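ENTRY TYPE: paired fold submission
RECORD: A
CONTENT: sequence, then structure tokens
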Amino acid sequence: MPIFELFVIAVGLAMDAFAVSIATGIRLGCATGRQTFRMAFHFGFFQFLMPVLGWTAGSAVGRYISAFDHWVAMALLAFIGGKMIYEALHHGDNATTAADPTRGMTLIGLAVATSIDAFAVGLSLGVLKLGILFPSVLIGVVAAAFSTAGIKLGCRIGMAFSRRLEVLGGLVLIGIGIKIVLDHVVWG
């Protein structure tokens, strides 16, 4: 597969991570270098790992997983987005009491939810009998770069328009989850 096509696939897969990173940047207001690194590393790692797992799983397992992967992604994003909205409405501008979305299970949930489509890409590459190492590395690096850019952009937006945009960030996460389901159920 030509490198340009792989790059386009990588950018497409990184869009969910980019949007979630923007929402996280809005939520944080001003992300530290450590928070930015954690998000970029986890999103990049899971975007790298999922195609490898998909490629390894093979096409037989893909039929069963594709039946519900979009529901898992939507549930994770809706839960985390709902939690962000709840915290924004109940904690106001008190950043010290709200959970950091770049830590713990919240970060893992976001990384998994935004990388499930990469699993399907890995399955496709396996069916086509194409190599997986270079595409997976490219997908992971692009996702990490887009996550870094997204969290920085979200921080600028958040600082300019206040922490109340956290509600918008939560709605974005829920919207991405709904889009994933619609892509698979209605348009897929």
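RECORD: B
CONTENT: sequence, then structure tokens
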Amino acid sequence: MATDKSARSTTRRDLHRRQIRQSKPPCSICGQPIDYTLPFLHPGEYVVDHVIPIARGGLDTLENKAAAHRACNSRKSDKLKATPRPETIQTTRRW
């Protein structure tokens, strides 16, 4: 288990990015389509998410990686699952 970022292989990272990108999957966090043509650092650009973060014991393997938007992946951070936004329910009932 590699926990030090410097121990991860950039060659393997680039290979995994290409393999995931080939099928152009939607964001694994929000489920929305990803625009694979967006420029670097755009909030909607394609990035690779570690489903189980390296910091939480996840492995740097293709099976533990999925496509995500940069903003979704940033919001998820090193959590196991993205925190859902609370849903607001409005009612006309008065007490």
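NOTES ON RECORD B: The radius of gyration is 16 Å. The mean pLDDT is 87.
STATUS: closed
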